[in-house]
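Objective 1b: paired records.
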Amino acid sequence: MTNQPARGDTSNAGGAAPTSDDGSDSTVSTTGGAAGEFSDPTPELDGLEVDGVEIGLKPAFDPEITRYSVLASDPGGDLRVEVSAHASLQIEIDGAEVVSGVPVALPNVAPGSEFTIEVANQAGDARTYQVSYLPADFPNFSVTARDSTASPDPIYLSTRSHGSYYVVKLDNNGVPLFYRKTEQLSFDFKKHPTGEVSYAEFAPGTTRATQVVLDEDYTEVDRVTTVGLVDTDEHEFVIRPNGNYIVLAYEAVVRDLTEFGLGPAEKLRDGIWQELSPDHEVLFQWNSWDHMVFDETVYLERDARDYSHMNSLFVDDDGNWIVSSRGMAQILKIDRATGDVIWKLGGVQNQFTFINDPFGGLCGQHTASILENGHLLLFDNGQYCYPEMPERGELTRIVEYAIDEDAMTAELVWSYSKEGAYTQSQGSAQRLENGNTFIGWGAGTRYLATEVNPDGEIVFELQARAATGNTQSYRARRFAD
């Protein structure tokens, strides 16, 4: 962008400052500084409008916000942009100079791309605005609550809306920082301690998933499945700091279940965890059948074949594993060295006494993790309770238990629930560095994500719809850049 004399500049070409009749210096200081100084205005827009779209600028224009999005119509039409700024500033859109207040057509900008607006003053200071021109089937994200105490870390989602699938990284204005449309259903988009990100994507026409690993530039660097097994699952995938992978399978098997009153050749799905080296060598394997009893599942009415339905794994600081089994309504701590179960919380084989918990148990939970204070945090969905808890009604809650492994007690020390946010499946709970809790609501509610402070006050909330209908995400979490 070239610099040209600012309109309205009153300095003369010879460089001598003009004087008043009494000979005093009459140069105007635009900054209130010493006489004779001149300062260009701040390089920023006064206004930005985009026409020819289904949904206009998000968030609402603010000169201090430099990243926006618009949602294309279907099919994408002619895009027209009008920007305005101080008369002395120069404006370019994708490198072409434009005039303040005059709409311009952008015929070469297609849905799925971005365009940039640069504003500069004579001094060479510049500010760049970016507008993401989103495809017509992209979710229509809406930030419905936000205050200054919300975490600034980006939000990671894997969205689905009736055949339209995206993995998305959002800022706190609901504007994508990165997104990718996946051809098949995708799950569990997240960042790992190694800096890599991943998501699970189903093979066409199957329930078999592949974990797709991307580097920090979102370039694919690996595809991971279980080794020697067939049905790699989408629910969980961990890249450990040493680069090892932890991957899950819901493996189809045939077992003799006559001792449970069933047949000698019943079809089941075992939950199997593998830890793999970066070269995909099996280092450890754990099978639910070896440590769970079939008729203790709470999934008998839903799907008896899927008796364990394991959905999260967390590696504790002591190196042992914390596993969530929704099928058993149970959390297990597993010895990393031997594979033996150290304890079971909830379910038929519960070994703990619940304290201060009005319901005294778990119900079809997700995302169990151990916090820095040693407490257990999880997303308690509210279905498939053991024992049955009709008094709960339709209640989903996020719960934090203080676990005493000597006294074998689980004391409820914090919980949160939200009216209208009963989650029938999926969901996540994450304790953030600022002490807030970030919640992904999964399926069955209009909410996508909520951040609450320790007092249960909402400091951030995200909702979304798409042209194809309601939008949901298996999990929603924040990860720092």
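Objective 1b, second protein:
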Amino acid sequence: MTLDTPALKVRALRKSFPDPEGGRVEVLHVEDLVLERGRTLAVLGESGSGKTTLLHVVAGILPADGGSVEIVGRPMSGLGETARDRLRAEHIGYLFQTFNLLPHLTALENVTLGMTFRPRAGESPRERARDALDRVGLSDRLAYRPPQLSVGQQQRVAIARALAGRPALVLADEPTANLDAVRAQESLDLLLTFAEECGAAVLAVTHDDRALVRFQDRLTLGEPA
């Protein structure tokens, strides 16, 4: 693996789910996608077009039915659950729409927990988490738990958690959906700037027209072939 290796490469990717009549409905078909490090790509499409499914398959949360996914040149497709979890932990940061913070842990503990799955020689997970929270402007909220934080602050903790491990690829599901216009732009600024500093590619699902202009490339799912 080198820095020239794409963060993400997808070929002939398909995913389907069972329907009530015993058949299967294909919800995702991506023929060809390459995302270089440092590039940003917005994923668009109508409801049910497979946008979040694409993120889940790329992250190895869901297995693909066909085709291939490579993360920094390493195959995600065909791996067992444990191996998929390890590859995701090493190279992917995931920003969930609902943040997925653990309510009983502090901001620092939430970010540190993500670091325990990405060990790096000579670096303390807790210090890396502290640095990431400082980077998103929350150095004075380290001991606060999610219920004590505003929605915008929770989003910042989630951004810090996604990027503290310096991943090659960041997946973001509707990163501005739960925020007002001002907070949405602030959070998007943090996400994209932090990712750029890490040299990470960003693959984001969004319906926000204001966010779209910030992305270099677009992929629309569900369009006729």
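Residues 12 and 225 are 13 Å apart (CA to CA). The beta strands are 8-18, 24-35, 40-44, 66-71, 74-75, 92-95, 169-173, 201-205, 217-220.
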